[in-house]
Write a structure and sequence with these properties.
The chain is of the alpha+beta class and about 150 residues long. It contains four helices and five strands; from the N terminus they run H-E-E-E-H-E-H-H-E. A hairpin with a 2-residue loop joins strand 2 and strand 3. The chain starts with a helix and ends in a 34-residue tail after the last strand.
């Protein structure tokens, strides 16, 4: 997991560990649950990517795809979000270039798995050529309404 967080330029990535007692990730001894929701989301995504890499490198079974649901929650607009204000650790993370490195790293894994990212914010501009981006508008007659066609 340290490798994934380092690729994403996550602060203190070198201090990431998996705690066998709690079966969860810690960063510098701080458990994942003690962070804001956005940081927890990124750490959860990193763990799933690390499992993919672990399985592929050891020829272990893996379904060959990942679905990451709002892994970049830290980059939400706090005043418009149902998740409320950003925590201090989320504010710090939002100031980094993690989002760009996140997308670049995942694009580089295209030969290992299909990765679907469901996100509420647009990816950084430089990422668009690296992936197929589908925007769901939720508005009739404007682009794609949603994942499934609107009935009726």
């Amino acid at each position: 997991m340290r490798e994934v967080l380092t690729a994403w330029k996550f602060p203190q990535a070198d201090r990431a560990q998996f705690d066998i007692e709690t079966n969860d990730v810690t960063i510098g001894g701080k458990p994942r649950w003690a962070n804001g929701k956005g940081v927890r989301a990124i750490l959860h995504a990193a763990f799933n990517v690390a499992v993919l890499l672990f399985c592929r490198r050891r020829d272990l079974p893996h379904p060959g795809f990942l679905v990451l649901d709002t892994p970049l929650l830290t980059y939400r607009e706090p005043m418009k979000s149902k998740h409320g204000e950003l925590s201090a650790d989320e504010e710090e993370l939002k100031k980094t270039s993690l989002a760009t490195h996140f997308y670049e790293h995942l694009a580089g894994l295209k030969d290992l798995a299909q990765i679907i990212i469901i996100e509420n914010s647009d990816p950084p501009n430089g990422i668009r050529p690296l992936a197929k981006i589908e925007t769901f508008t939720g508005v009739d007659g404007e682009g794609r309404y949603g994942l499934f066609p609107k009935l009726g």
